[in-house]
Amino acid sequence: MNRLLRSINVTELLRPLGHVLAFSCGSAALMSLIAVSLALVLDRTVVGADLLDRYNVTLFTYTMVNLPQVVIDGLTIGFVYAAIALGYTMVYGVLEFINFAHSEIFAVGAFVGVELLIALDATGILAGASLVMAYAYLILAILFGMIAAGALAVTVERVAYRPLRGASRLVPLISAIGVSFLLQDIIRLVESLTTGQFNRIMPTFGNFDGRIIFGKLAMGNSTITLGIAIKSIIVIVAAVVMLVGLNYLVNATRIGKAIRAVAQDRKTASLMGINVNKIISLTFLVGGLLGGAAGVLYALKFTRIDPFVGFFPGLKAFTAAVLGGIGNMTGALLGGLVIGMLETFAGSYMGVFTMGALGSEYKDIFAFSILILVLIFRPQGLMGKHVVQKA
Amino acid sequence: MSLLTLENVHSYYGRIHALKGINVEVAEGEIVTLIGSNGAGKSTALRTISGMMHPKVGRIIYDGKDISKKEPHDIVLSGMVHVPEGRGIFPTLTVKENLEMGAFTVRDSRLIEERMEYGFSLFPRLRERVNQHGGTLSGGEQQMLAIARGLMMEPRLLMLDEPSMGLAPILVELIFDIVKELNERGITILLVEQNALMALSIAHRGYVLQTGEITVGDTAINLRNNTAVQEAYLGIS
Ligand SMILES: Nc1ncnc2c1ncn2[C@@H]1O[C@H](COP(=O)(O)OP(=O)(O)OP(=O)(O)O)[C@@H](O)[C@H]1O
Ligand SMILES: [Mg+2]
Questions:
Q1: Which among A257, A265, A267 has the least Cβ separation from residue B97?
Q2: CB A340 within 8 A of CB A80
């Protein structure tokens, strides 16, 4: 037991927590600064005057009042993107291949988790569940989503990618896009055969819809309520636990070193006695587990899912992976948080800042503009070098 | 007793016929060298033996078993280690992690530590660089690491592909001394070299490979005295 404790590499547990903290605070601070500065500037223009005229509130006050919730929402969706992005980035690191079916693996995770909860809800267990049991059921749903998505990811690699491994790079990519459509249709088919509905709603149970209130802050003639939605805390905590676990697996364990070795030089890795195919399967498994968990967490946060639910989060997570530097795991975390934060700020403030000309429905522009800009000006991403590696 | 036997081995890269039916024998305890000029098929021979590629025709018998259809990660388990051309150091793994990868199939952490110590005793330079990334080592240090990593498996048969490539003469000498010492400790060696003079100075026997075919196979002394070999590979005329 003592030996076991001593063999735990504490730095590898703390280092990712440091990254999480630095990236969260950094992106939040940067976006807040931009939003508040913009508000202060716009307050002197017709935009501020108009708002003051209609609601008797300055843009600055409006921005500040909403800021805490916006930051928390940004973090929440940012961590979901990061968890999905890790699936893209790990597979890319090992195979230099973009698994475009990953968004559907995420969707399958979401569906399995939500269907499990809907089934439990139908029996009436959820409604009467104590708080502890409510959390137990939620964790169970997340685990089911993870297992289903992980198993699916491994199967997809085995059936649709491995036979094409010798072919030119475009071939497995096309296969991935095909798998992506196929999985969408399978979800649709299964849903229409079993429930007859495409839209599934996450049941309401436990205290997940509540808020924890820290206090109130007077701000001119309005007050800011400092509070966090419990859902958001759950998503963030779950994501951070997974990120730390993944970092530990990759950087501090024998299997993780083998994953990195295979990513760097597959042929030599096999000469070390590493079964390369097993490591590749494992990489898909880990990516699928994370994607599945992200799916259930996404459903918890946004409540409603449909067979196409994977498309936008998948594309944004891919953007996050590219932004951070595809293949780089720390980069995926950074990219996810930046994209999540950016789009949440845009979605919350753009409407008011532009006097309603550009509503929150335009928020996706930002993620995809970033994708294009990064690809043109910094294709290696913020953290650079496309190898699954230590930062 | 023969530890490794190649019987009429043919290997291809797509349509390129790289090995055209070679026969090689390595007895337990020997140093056998495979010499030949660029593109002769020396590396291909090692790749075919270690399972990185499979012969289209012919058999490879190792320790009495046909291994010609086995995968590299299985073959390693039987104590055959291939230190590849270009060294194959994992660039963003540290020296220590590279060594640990060499012992991937070993589960006993005490054994791993012992063998790492042995590697450091052979190449003290590696101990000083233990936490440095493999990619930041010099060429000579990388070669040391590649050999030390190969020893982490405690091999019965160690196959080295041009360990002298790109190294200063003094380092070449050090590497060859160590190869000899490893052999004296009981490790059978199959050595691929372009530096035929050095290779034949430590080997017991050797084969000359020319465009995928073995032209001569003899004892090292006879090869050194063979005028054709002298002219083609030893720079003597
Ligand atoms: N990956 C490959 N694809 C196609 N042809 C290859 C490949 N590797 C080697 N060859 C060809 O096979 C033949 C033998 O190559 P091999 O690498 O075994 O030579 P070698 O004796 O090791 O040469 P060197 O001393 O230059 O390392 C050469 O003609 C080479 O062009
Ligand atoms: Mg060669």
A1: A257
A2: yes
- To test ligand 1's pocket by mutation, which of B42, B53, B207 has the most ligand atoms within 8 angstroms of CB? B42
Query: To the nearest whole angstrom, how far is the Cα of A268 from the nearest Cα of chain B?
Result: 6
Going by DSSP bridges, is the β-strand pair B213-219/B205-210 parallel, antiparallel, or unpaired?
antiparallel
Give the model's pLDDT for residue A82. Answer: 96
Cα–Cα nearest to B226, from B210, B40, B234, B26: B234
Sequence-distant (6+) residues with CB within 8 A of A320 are A81, A82, A84, A85, A332, A335, A336, A338, A339, A340
pLDDT over threshold 90, residue A128: no
By C-alpha distance, the chain B residue nearest A385 is B92
Distance of CA A6 to the CA centre of its chain: 33
Mean pLDDT confidence for A161-182: 92
Pairwise CA distance, residues B208 & B217, whole Å = 6
What chain B holds in terms of domains, given with CATH numbers, is 2-79+155-234 (3.40.50.300), 88-154 (no CATH)
Q: What ipTM did this prediction achieve?
A: 0.94
Touching check for B88 and chain A: CB below 8 Å?
Answer: yes
**Smallest CA–CA distance from A261 into chain B, residue:** B90
As a whole number of angstroms, the distance between CA A170 and CA A167 comes to: 8
User: Rounded to whole angstroms, what are the CA distances from A125 to A120, A134, A202, A297, A301?
Assistant: 6, 9, 15, 21, 21
The span from the CA of A64 to the CA of A85, in Å, is: 31
- Measured CA to CA, the distance from residue B180 to residue B166 in angstroms comes to 20
| Chain segment A20-31, per-residue pLDDT in tens | 999 999 999 999
Residues of A in contact with B146 (CB under 8 A): none
- At A208 the three-state DSSP class reads coil
Q: Which residues contact A44 (CB under 8 A, 6 or more apart)?
A: none
Pocket of ligand 1 (CB under 6 A): B 13, 16, 18, 36, 38-44, 85, 194
Q: Which of A43-47, B28-32, B81-85, B170-174 has the lowest mean pLDDT?
A: A43-47
Q: A14-377: which CATH topology?
A: ABC transporter involved in vitamin B12 uptake, BtuC (1.10.3470)
pLDDT at B237 over 70: no
Domain boundaries, chain A: 14-377
A57-89 pLDDT, tens per residue?
A: 888 888 888 888 899 999 999 999 999 999 999
Which residue is closest to B85 within chain A, CA to CA? A268
Which pLDDT score is estimated for A230? 92
pLDDT single digits (tens) B89-138: 999 999 999 999 999 999 999 999 999 999 999 999 999 999 999 999 99
Distances (CA, A) of A47 to A54, A55, B136, B175: 11, 12, 56, 76
CA B65/CA A314 separation, integer angstroms: 49
